[in-house]
Design goal:
With 209 residues, the protein is of the alpha/beta class. The chain contains seven helices and eight strands, in the order αβαβαββαβαββαβα. 35% of the residues lie in helices and 20% in strands. α2 packs across α3 and α4 crosses α5. The longest helix has 17 residues. The two termini are 23 Å apart.
Length: 209
């Protein structure tokens, strides 16, 4: 249902309680779009620990199916091994390195901290100087309500196609923030609700950790 909605509208939302399995859902959608269209995909998160959890689940699921896709982590401070030990390349505010990695890994996955979206945006600007039709295939935005802010904050830039061009987006969160201009209720930015699971439904199905 969620994939059908995202295919139709190009951007959609999912609401579910903590522990329901949103990260696995993000990966399922990533796999669907990558296998169908190829290209680069993005997984967004609001902190380094969540970013690492998403990274580990994505790679575990792909490897279990005999698929290895190159990964790049964009997160300032994430290369601090006392915090997290990453087995892949990590960059912060370095659009040149990001653009080079994108060029060399046309079927890779980018795991990006919202606070570093501007670096991704600047890398895209450089790429578009030679390839004006460049875009990403899919982006999954974990804790999607964190993107609800005006352009200029950086955290919202993944929402806007003229800043980070993406064919299909999904925004996942336990609660959806509303605002008349840039809230998740603005359909032109976030699309319509693709699916939702309540706390009661999650407990009934035994999905909540």
């Amino acid at each position: 249902r969620l994939i059908r909605k995202s295919r139709k509208d190009r951007r959609t939302k999912f609401q579910g309680p903590p522990g329901w399995g949103k990260t696995y859902l993000m990966w399922r959608m990533d796999q669907y779009y990558w296998k169908r269209f190829g290209g680069l995909t993005i997984s967004m998160a609001d902190g380094v620990i969540v970013l690492k959890q998403n990274f580990e689940l994505y790679n575990k699921q792909y490897k279990a199916r005999g698929i290895e896709r190159p990964s790049l982590v964009i997160c300032s401070g994430a290369d601090d091994e006392s915090m997290v030990d990453w087995p892949v390349e990590v960059v912060g505010n370095d659009p040149v390195r990001i653009a080079r990695w994108i060029k060399n890994n046309p079927n890779g996955i980018i795991f990006c901290f919202y606070g570093n979206t501007k670096s991704l945006e600047d890398a895209v600007k450089a790429i578009k100087l030679k390839d004006k039709n460049f875009d990403f295939t899919f982006a999954a935005c974990d804790e999607g309500s964190r993107t609800c802010s005006p352009i200029g904050s950086g955290w919202s830039h993944i929402v806007h196609n003229h800043l980070v061009p993406v064919k299909y987006r999904v925004f996942l969160d336990a609660t959806h923030r509303s605002h008349k201009t840039y809230g998740m209720n603005v359909k032109s930015l976030y699309g319509e609700m693709g699916d939702a699971v309540s706390q009661a439904e999650s407990e009934k199905w035994g999905s909540t950790t």
